Amino acid sequence: MEADISPAFPNPVLDEKFTPGQYTPTSATAFLSPGIPSPTPAGSAMKLYDPSDPSTYPSSPVSSGYDNSSYVVQTSGPLGGAQMHQEVPADLRRAIAIGMTVFSLLQRYSSKSPITLMSSLTIPLNDGNRIPWLGFGTGTALYLKDAEQAVLTAINNGIIHLDGAQMYGNEESLGAAIAASGKTRSSLYVTTKLDKLREGQTVREAFLESLGKLKLDYVDLYLIHMPVAHEGRLKAVWKEFEALKKEGLAKSIGVSNFRVRDLEELLDGATVVPAVNQIEYHPYVVKAAQPVIEYMKKHGILPTSYGGLTPIVRFKGGPVDPVLSSIRERLQKTSGKPVTEGQVLGLWLRAKGIPEITTTSKVERIKEYIATETLPDLTVEEVHAIDEAGSQVHHRVFAQWLDAAKL
Ligand SMILES: NC(=O)c1ccc[n+]([C@@H]2O[C@H](COP(=O)([O-])OP(=O)(O)OC[C@H]3O[C@@H](n4cnc5c(N)ncnc54)[C@H](OP(=O)(O)O)[C@@H]3O)[C@@H](O)[C@H]2O)c1
Q: Which parts of the sequence are annotated with region: Disordered (predicted)?
């Protein structure tokens, strides 16, 4: 049976880009956040895309002849693109944009200055918000550990999307890193997740505790971490999530590790459809995840992936290995840049429009993750080949109970 490589959810950007059997990169700019510099053809000047100012709109289609290698290099520091959009008047913004272009070019050609690539690819959600494609997590390797230094390093090296959770026991250190980074709130995207409620505790109380630890006045995304922690209470819990969204305390709300039956239960009577379902997603669970992915696609719920590097980190030697290796070689030749197998897995997720939530203890790896955003697309055949190889075996690492019942 042929693996399904159609987009995993109804995504205006990907539906436009990606029809089964044909994948044409026509509108890379559509992925970018407002205020984030648009990809420009090699050699042309950087321009900030500001939705309130038509003169900054990229001509359409921006990317005919668009070269992935020419993504704008953005300097790190307090004047990130998104921040400029939010807080600086248009004239000044334009002047700063020109200044940044010159500065960025000077940096690019000066031998000593370090250049920081910034994560800038975003994916639309069903509530009108956008989620940065690349997320840096404070679970797994950082679970129950102080995450301040790791998160600060990630932010300083261009990460904007931070994935936390009450269960990870380190929201304070995530908040400390955010504060220490000096970034404005609007330039970062912060997720946290609800754990099991204590006896008599409301969702609102648990949420406010998280918010206090994070030292924030809102989160971008609030998720129910595990359906099994709220057996029989999912609808009531979701009602409280809806209230938090209405108040603007959580810009988007969603779920994690949800099966079809959990989504069905939650959606019955819901006024807000979850924006995302964060699930373990890599080639070795493609087949098992298919029912829930299909259901989510029907309801406009975006899958986000954790554990995406499993084939190279936790199950080496599986049938996906040779496929990754040959795609890596092809991409390296095509792009003229070094490409890793981890990046091929990231590109596989990107091709499906699925954000990658990952983590690392290494600066070089952060750079590698961010650089994935600017590598060329996988071909439809390559996406198929990874799906097919992954479907030969099943390896789930997290939330094993998901396999005990029909997804
Ligand atoms: N919702 C949930 O239930 C749930 C469950 C699990 C995770 N998550 C979220 O997702 C985040 C990431 O999860 P994950 O750790 O499973 O992500 P992952 O992307 O599958 O793995 C990341 C790990 O892979 C290692 N790595 C990367 N490239 C490597 C390579 N080439 N060779 C060897 N090791 C390599 C990194 O270690 P180095 O330090 O060596 O780079 C890092 O620890 C978590 O922190 C959490 O925020 C959510």
A: 1-20, 42-63
155 CA → ligand 1 middle, Å: 17
For residues 14 and 353, what is the distance between their CA atoms, to the nearest angstrom? 7
Encoded amino acid at 197, one letter: L
Do 391 and 3 meet the contact criterion of CB atoms below 8 Å apart?
yes
Give the list of residues 6+ apart from residue 76 with CB closer than 8 angstroms, or none: 116, 118, 156, 157, 158
In the prediction, which pLDDT does 5 show? 36
Q: Considering the domain 122-396, what is its CATH architecture?
A: Alpha-Beta Barrel (3.20)
Q: Which of 71, 168, 306, 369 does the annotation list as catalytic?
A: 168
- Euclidean distance between the first and the last CA atom of the chain, given in angstroms as a whole number: 20
Residue 113 has pLDDT above 70, yes or no: no
The set of residues, in sequence order, having a beta carbon less than 8 Å from that of 286 and lying 6+ positions away, is 3, 387, 390, 391
Lowest mean pLDDT among 40-49, 89-98, 216-225, 261-270: 40-49
pLDDT at 110: 45
In the chain, residues under CATH classification 3.20.20.100 are 122-396
* 64: nearest Cα among 39, 33, 38, 27: 27
Q: Is 119 in the pocket of ligand 1 (CB under 6 A)?
A: no
pLDDT at 117: 87
Catalytic choice (225, 230, 282, 395): 225
**Ligand 1 mean position, distance from CA 140 (Å):** 6
**In the chain, what's the furthest Cα-to-Cα distance?**
61
The answer to whether the CB of 256 is under 6 A from ligand 1 is yes
Cβ–ligand 1 distance for 137 under 6 Å, the answer yes
Average pLDDT over every residue of 261-287: 98
Concerning whether 168 is annotated as a catalytic residue, the answer is yes
On whether the CB atoms of residues 310 and 394 are closer than 8 A, the answer is no
Q: Which residues pair with 302 in a beta bridge?
A: 276
Give the three-class secondary structure for 56.
helix
Mean pLDDT of 253-263: 98
Whether the pLDDT of residue 383 is over 70: the answer is yes
